[in-house]
Amino acid sequence: MSRYLMKLCYDGTAYHGWQKQQNGLAIQEVLERAFHYFSPESGSIIAAGRTDTGVHALAQYAHFDYAGRMQPEQMLLAFRRLLPPDIKVLEISRVSPWLSARYQAYERSYRYLLAKETSPFSCRYSGFMPHLNLALGPMQEAAIQLLGRHDFSSFGRANPEVPNRICELRKLEISETEEAFIFEVVADRFLHNMVRRIVGTLANISHFKLPASIILDILADRCPRQNLVTTAPPSGLYLIGVKYPVEFLDESYVPEKMTTNEVLT
To answer: Is 50 exposed, middle or buried (0-12, 13-18, 19+ CB in 10 A)?
Structure first.
């Protein structure tokens, strides 16, 4: 049995997020169905992050275990043949059996596209918040206040299963084109809905012409029920990158003080 890491992209419009569930079709379910077609005894495919309904990925990562004879190049072709056109596996490589796509990820990157006007040709691939007057400068000024290590409870959906609400926001850059505002967000970890709630909050600060320092008050409250915190639509969000310690990408790597009974899943 060997462990493999895949890089994939997908259009999340037709799916109820990454994780398998009873109330709708998920990316994970479609991938595992294809996987089981050529590896019937295979287990789960575990992703770096559980993207929500309607959220897209340009570079999602996921690991799986495989004991068959196919090489990564052959598996790549098999996945591409079996998957629908809105999901594509880009790369597959053999990695350390101790790598967990979820738990070894030390940095994740997202992009959010906030459209200035709604359009039937882009509504599935950008967010739109009607009736808001948006300006780049105020959003950029407020965004600076979020950089660094904070308790982001106010920007994450309440979840008692995630007691640690501390995240290090390493990058939050906002640019503007004729069609949209583009948010580039990088952190060591993200709470549920965190990127979308940050985007919605910055949009509200711009619209209501509030001081950038209001962000510090929102952070200090540490409560997800905030009047200014709005969750931007999922259609504008893209997972664009995940980073792992380089040693875990080496199939021969064995961490110190770990045994074969401690393989992460």
So the answer is: middle
**Per-residue pLDDT reduced to its tens digit, 114-142:** 999 999 999 999 999 999 999 999 999 99
In this predicted model, what pLDDT tens digit does every residue of 173-186 receive, in sequence order? 999 999 999 999 99
Contact 245, 66 (CB under 8 A): no
Could you list the active site residues? 52
Q: Token pair 């770096």 is at which residue? A: 48
Name the packing angle between helices 136-144 and 194-207 (round to 10°): 130
- The pair phi, psi for residue 24, each rounded to 5°, is 175, 165
pTM confidence score: 0.93
Structure token pair of residue 114: 């906030």
Domains of the chain: residue spans and CATH: 2-104+244-255 (3.30.70.580), 129-232 (3.30.70.660)
Give ∠ CA 99-100-101 in degrees, rounded to 5: 115
Alpha-carbon distance of 26 to 45, in angstroms, equals 12
